[in-house]
């Protein structure tokens, strides 16, 4: 067949431009970073025209990445999976043979290989929220962490909320994908949903909106629910609150690592993540999901609320032990 010459840099630019219409900005950045490794490899091998790619050369690239001593198996799989999608795209624009993507091999993961166990469990979350309710009630950190824990939302979804997305009368939040005004959410329109709220959480939101929230709009004239005096909260701000308040010493608990809070580097604002005990927003989401499952909330209800499939729920979020699952089944089946 007749292929049209294309260099690696141009190919990646065209691919990312194609994905912009359907993927979140963070996904585009991640794909670009992964494919930069492929562009670098092409430069080292003096491959200036991707028409010349073959299954053997793609295998050589895989070996090149695998030989990076610091690269985890899960990271290699992610990079090769992205490369396969990229090569499939090139096949649609006459950059490579249409079937070449089938020759991109990705490592097989064993159960547990790509699961991360870090999470904020129920026993850790309660002191954090109790402290904020007592000493920083209806503050931005309080509202932010309460929403993350009680709704199981991803960081991007919480940050994307507007004041108008909250219905105090019917007690729910509307999660919407609005990439054109700076707040895309994971899964795009498929991630849109209504999230029911408890009366207590609605009371917190009502008090935040009435007494504490700055009267500001963002650069798109939208009214962000999580607002600072300068507009919509940045993702980095949400992460900082998570790191700051999930440190045991920050909420009046003793340090489990025998550190002196007066001398601990993790008490510095720029080094909060160095605390061995604190967690990021995703660990709060994982802990909340596990807590809901342990509380006998049906898996389908948890999955729908958290916007996660049954397979991904079991693989990445459900941190119940097999014995805990057995005991829950016993409770449900005991009368049969």
Number of β-strand runs? 5
Strand order of the largest sheet: 1-2-3
Distance between the termini: 65 Å
Strand fraction band? Answer: under 5%
What's the gyration radius in Å? 23 Å
* Overall helicity: 40-55%
> Based on helices, strands and strand pairing, what is the structural class?
mainly alpha
For CATH, the homologous superfamily of the largest domain is named as Intergrase catalytic core
Largest sheet: 3 strands, antiparallel
Plain-language structure description:
The strands form 2 sheets. A 3-stranded antiparallel sheet has the order 1-2-3. The chain contains 13 helices and 5 strands. A hairpin with a 4-residue loop joins strand 1 (166-167) and strand 2 (172-175). The protein is mainly alpha-helical and 336 residues long. The N and C termini lie far apart (65 Å). It is globular and about 70 Å long. It is 49% helix and 4% strand.
């Amino acid at each position: 067949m007749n292929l049209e010459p294309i260099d690696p840099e141009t190919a990646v630019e065209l691919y990312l431009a194609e994905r912009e219409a359907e993927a979140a900005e963070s996904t585009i950045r991640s794909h670009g970073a992964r494919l930069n490794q492929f562009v670098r490899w092409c430069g080292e091998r003096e491959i200036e025209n991707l028409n010349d790619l073959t299954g053997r050369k793609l295998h050589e690239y895989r070996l090149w990445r695998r030989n990076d001593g610091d690269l985890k198996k899960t990271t290699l799989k992610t990079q090769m999976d992205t490369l396969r999608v990229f090569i499939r795209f090139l096949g649609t624009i006459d950059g490579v043979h249409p079937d070449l993507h089938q020759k991109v091999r990705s490592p097989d993961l064993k159960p547990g290989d790509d699961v991360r166990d870090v999470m904020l469990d129920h026993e850790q979350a309660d002191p954090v929220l109790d402290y904020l309710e007592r000493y920083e009630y209806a503050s931005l950190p309080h509202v932010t962490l309460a929403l993350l824990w009680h709704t199981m939302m991803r960081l991007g979804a919480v940050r994307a909320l507007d004041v108008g997305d909250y219905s105090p009368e019917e007690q729910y939040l509307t999660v919407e994908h609005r990439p054109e005004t700076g707040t895309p959410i994971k899964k795009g329109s498929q991630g849109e949903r209504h999230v029911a709220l408890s009366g207590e959480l609605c009371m917190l939101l009502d008090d935040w909106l009435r007494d504490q929230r700055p009267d500001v709009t963002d650069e798109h004239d939208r009214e962000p629910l999580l607002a600072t005096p300068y507009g919509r909260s940045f993702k980095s701000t949400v992460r900082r609150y998570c790191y700051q308040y999930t440190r045991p010493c920050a909420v009046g608990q003793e340090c489990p690592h025998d550190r002196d809070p007066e001398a601990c580097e993790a008490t510095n604002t720029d080094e909060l993540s160095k605390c061995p005990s604190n967690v990021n927003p995703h660990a709060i989401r994982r802990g909340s999901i596990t807590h809901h499952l342990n509380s006998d909330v049906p898996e389908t209800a948890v999955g729908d609320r958290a916007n996660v499939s049954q397979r991904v729920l079991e693989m990445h979020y459900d941190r119940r032990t097999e014995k805990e699952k057995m005991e829950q089944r016993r409770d449900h089946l005991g009368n049969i």
